[in-house]
Amino acid sequence: MRVTGVVQAGGKSTRMGGRPKALLDVGRRPLIGRVVDALGHVLDDLLIVTNTPDLYAFLGLPMVPDAYPDRGSLGGIYSGLKAAGGTAAFTVACDMPFLQPDVIRLVIDRTAEADVVIPRVGEQLETLHAAYAKTCLGPMEEELLAGRLKITGFFDRVRVLEIAEREVARYRDPAIVFMNVNTPEELARALGLQARIG
Questions:
Q1: Three-state secondary structure along 36-72?
Q2: What are the C-alpha distances in Å from 104 to residues 51, 62, 122, 139, 163?
Q3: 3-class DSSP state for residue 7?
Q4: DSSP 93
Q5: Start-to-end Cα distance in the chain
Q6: Cα angle value 133/117/62 (rounded, 5°)
Q7: How far apart are CA 31 and CA 56, in angstroms?
Q8: pTM of the full predicted structure?
Q9: Exposure string (b/e) for 166-189, b if CB count within 10 Å is 16 or more?
C-alpha cells in the first residue's frame, strides 16, 4: 500500500496571536521543517495542506488548499487525502516538534489492515497522527457537507485500528511524541524539552 505523508498547515494560529506557528523555531528549525524531516525519514511522497502556500514554498513540496474552507481539521484531512497520490494518507499537524520516525512507521506499517489506523493515549485518539485510506473520503465528505466537523464523526462507518499507548511508549513518551505547540506557553515548554532531549 502506497502512503502519502500529509502535513496540515491550514490553521489560523489564533492562540499564537496570529503568527504562523508552523514557522516558529524550535531547535533553530521551524516547526514545519522538523515535521517534514521526520516524515521524510519514513515516506518519500509528501504534501502540505495550506491556504497560504507562499509561506511554505521554501520546503519545495506540493501544496493543496482546503477543498472545504473553514471546516477545521476534518476539512484539512479530507483535502490532503483527496490530493494524496497514495492509497492512504498519513496525516500530521504542522506544530508537532517531536515526531518520532519509529512511531510514524508503527502506524504506516498497519495501513493495509484498516481504513483508519490511529494511536490512542488514554481517552485521546491522536487524529492528527493517523493514517486514513481513500475509502474514508465518502464518509468524511458526508460529515463536512452536513457541517459536522468532529474528526471521529465518521469512524462508525469505516474500519478503525487503534495503536495502543504502550506500543508508542516503546519508542518515546507519548506525551512528547504527540505534543502540539498552540500557545506561547506550549512553545516555551517545547523549547525547554528541545534543550534537554534534542
A1: HHHHHCCCCCEEEECCCHHHHHHHCCCEECCCCCCCH
A2: 25, 20, 19, 24, 11
A3: strand
A4: E
A5: 32
A6: 50
A7: 11
A8: 0.94
A9: eebeeebebeebbbbbeeeebbee
CATH number of 3-197: 3.90.550.10
Q: Give residue limits of the domains in the chain.
A: 3-197
Using DSSP bridges, classify how beta strands 46-49 and 63-64 pair: parallel, antiparallel or unpaired.
parallel
* 135 contacts: CB under 8 Å, gap ≥ 6: 115, 158
Place of cell 490530493: 83
The rounded distance, in Å, linking the Cα atoms of 78 and 80 is: 6
pLDDT per residue as tens digits for the range 25-58: 888 889 999 999 999 999 999 999 999 999 999 9
Grid coordinates of 106: 508503527
C-alpha cell at 111: 495501513
Q: Are 21 and 13 in contact (CB under 8 A)?
A: yes
Does residue 198 sit in helix, strand or coil? coil
Radius of gyration of the chain (CA): 16
Quick: pLDDT tens for 160-191. Answer: 999 999 999 999 999 999 999 988 888 888 88
